[in-house]
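Budget justification note: compute hours in this period were largely spent on complex prediction jobs such as the one shown. Inputs:
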Amino acid sequence: MRLPSRNLAAPLAIALALGAVPGRAWAAGMPQLDFANPLLIGQVVWGAVIFAVFYIVLSRSALPRIEGVLTHRRNRIEGDLDIARRARDDADRAVDELRRARHDAAAQAQANIDRVVHEARMAAEAQTHEMNHRLMTDIAEAEKRIASARAEALASLPGVAADTAQSLIEKLLRPAGNENTISRAQVQDAVQAGLAASRG
Amino acid sequence: MAAGSTIDALGQFELHPVLGQIGEALRFSQSPLFMLIAIVAVLAFLYLGMRPAAVVPGRLQAAAELGYDFIHNMATETIGKEGAAFFPFVFAIFFFILAGNYLGLIPYCFTFTSHIAVTASLAILVFLVSILASFKYQGVKFFTHFMPEGAPVFLAPLLIPIEILSFLSRPVSLSIRLFANMMAGHVLLEVFAGFTLMLAGLGAFGSVLAVAPVVINVALTALELLVGVLQAYVFAILTCIYLREAVAH
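Corresponding output:
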């Protein structure tokens, strides 16, 4: 650093001045130490007044003015930042709301789809069920009809068989001239017996 | 100025009354005149700079705010939370000395910081302010600082006088440092300027050689610009350090 050497240099110069020229003479050599000069003390008094004025003007007016400008700027910046922060929060909230709304809408749509599909499935199942039921009843009815037809057929069988047997007999016996030798009742009994035998 | 073959390096520090009889009667020399110019320049810098009071500062306003912030940070960071109370004082000290140092570098201007009476007055002012602050913030406890904490008691007769001496030497070193720096710089400038005149008087060859001291003076002026702001800074930071010790509990 440059300072220490200079700090030494000047006192050295003063010491040399003090040592070289004894008595009153050095004061003439160094105006700063010429205390006989009233201007020397005068500058201290004036300096005190000027410095006091400087200090008062600075502390009362100049520095508070600068501080006011700096504070105003700081407040302004903070206020602007606050506004920006609020705007960002609002935007974030709006985005959240939008996202939630979309999510809700999607969920609702999915629920609607599920419900419609379910309904359609249920309807289809009901229809199938009804169809099956109708078919079953139709089948049951048909079976019943078949059974009755069969029973009817079975019931009319002895008569038909008796008729057939009688006409056969007549055809067989008429050429031989044996008329009404076998009665209808006999034929019927025989048919009945035969049927019973075939059944049994 | 150089008269013949001798260089009157100290003549620049002589005090002369300004405005003739009025100055003589009021003891008003060029030293207070330049103090006045210095504070007017600093206040003009601050007021003109801050006149726009803009949120986005211009160059001059930015410079004024930079000066404010620089000293404000120095005061509050060095002194502590009480620093705000001493900020105007430190600001006044720093800019008074800085303006004095820089005004002195302008030709035909007087350097009032090269007078030991001025620097000693400033140093004593700082000393008194720090003592008053000590009493205000610490009361009688202030005297305990003259006995370093943890030092053996039997060393007290040795330590206490040393501490008191070092305390009392503060204004001395503070004033001599500034005064000596400014005086040495201006003596050097004057001496090299005198060399130029002397060499120029030696004819054509001397005129050529006379350029060398001018070059040196240019470099010295640059150095003085550095020293001027550095000494103002040193004075202000030492003021802050003394005040921190004064307000520290």
